[in-house]
Fold each of these.
Amino acid sequence: MKKLLLLLLGFVGLQLQLSAQSLTAITPNSGTVGQNQITTTITGSNIFFTSISQWGNLENVELRNGSGSISVFNYMGGNWNAFVNTQDVADVTWDIPTNAVAGVYDVCVTTLDPGMPWVYYYDTLYSAFTINPPDGYVSGSLYYDANANGIRDGGETGLSNMVVQLTGPSNYTVYTNTNGDFSFGVANGSYTLTAGSPGRQYHFTSPSTIPVTVSNNNTSGLDIGAIDPLYAMSPRVGFRGQANINATVNAYDNIFTTSGNPWGNISYGYLTRVVGGA
C-alpha cells in the first residue's frame, strides 16, 4: 500500500511539473545562415534548475522544422555553451551552420528533473526562431605571394585552411578551401574582415584587415597575399663538421620574443636541404 501511494504521489508530482513548466520566448528570435557566436536567451516558467554546473539541468536544445534539426546545446555531445541564470532564464551561445536551410524553426528544449534524474521534460516553443538567408556575399582568396608584390600573379597558389573572420553586427568565421578561396553569406552591416593562419605564421603582403560593408550587395575580389615571415639568414654558407656557427635569422614580423632565457620563444630550428649536396 505504501509503495502504491508513493508511486501515485510521484505520478501526481510529475503531472504537476509537466503542467507548471513552459517555454515563453527566445531572444533574439532570428539569425542569418552562417552566423557565429550568437547568444540567445531562452525564457520560460519553472523550466531550469541551477546547480554546480553552469548549464544546470539542461540536456539538449535544438531547432527543428521540416528540413531537419540544428543543434544549439547538447550536454552528452560535450557542447556546454549554456548558462542557467534562474529557473526561468538560460543563455546559450551557438553557431548557425553555413549549410543551414533558411526558414522558421521550433525551439525544442530537454531538461532533467533534478530530483528524479531518470525523468526528462520536453518543451517546445513553436515557430519561434527564424533563420534568414544572407543579404549579400563577401568573397576572396588567400594565396602565397611568391614575389611579395601584393598582387596575385599567374602560378601563385592558394593557401588552404586559412581562417577568415568577419566581425561586426554579427560574427562569421570560415576557412579557405583547397584553392585558397573563401566566401561568406552575411547580413547587412559594416564589418571588419581579418585573415590569419591556425598553427603557422605568415607575413601578409597586402592588408590582412579590410573594412567591408554589405547592403544587399556582394563584395568579391578580396585577395590577400602571404609569404613565410623569415626572409634572411647570415651567414648563408657552412661546411661539414663546422661547429658553433653564430647565425642571424631575420623576419618580417615580430615573431620572436625575449624572455628569461637566451632563446626566448624559440622551441627548435633546423635546415632542410632543397638543392645540391651529397
Amino acid sequence: MTRYSQLDALRGFAVLGLFLMNLPYFGLFEWGYVSKWEAHPLDAWISSFINVFIDGRFRTLFCLLFGCAIALQFEKYGSTVRIQNRNRALIVLGFLHGLFIWAGDILFAYGCAGLLLVRYLEESGEKNLREGFILLVVMSLVLFVATATEPETPF
C-alpha cells in the first residue's frame, strides 16, 4: 500500500488541532467551558481564540482528510464492502470509547458518516453534485431558521 506522507502530516497536524480544541474539556470535564458570566477576561479571550482559530478549522481539516481516506480506500479496493466493514468497526470502537473513556468522542459519528458516504462512491459525479447542492441548500435553510429563531444572547 502506498502511503501519502503529505496526508499523514496533515492528519497529524489535524489531530494536534483536535487536541488543542478539546483542552477546555480536559480541564473542565463537567461543563467543558468556562461560563462567560464568571470568566476572567483572559479566559473569555482564550475561549474566543479557540472558537475562531482552532475549533472549526481543525475539525473541518480532519473531516476532509477522512473523506480523502475513504476515496483512497475505494480506489484501492474497488468495492465498498471493506469500507463498510471498516466503518462498522469504527462505529463500535467509537461507541465503546464514548461510553467508557471520553464522552466527547467523535469516532462514532465518523463511522456513521462513512457508512452514509459509501452509497455515493459508486454514483456518477453529476448525480453526487446535484444531491450535494440540494443538501447544502436544505441544511443552510435549516441552520438559518434555527439561528434566526434563537433568543439573543449578550455574547
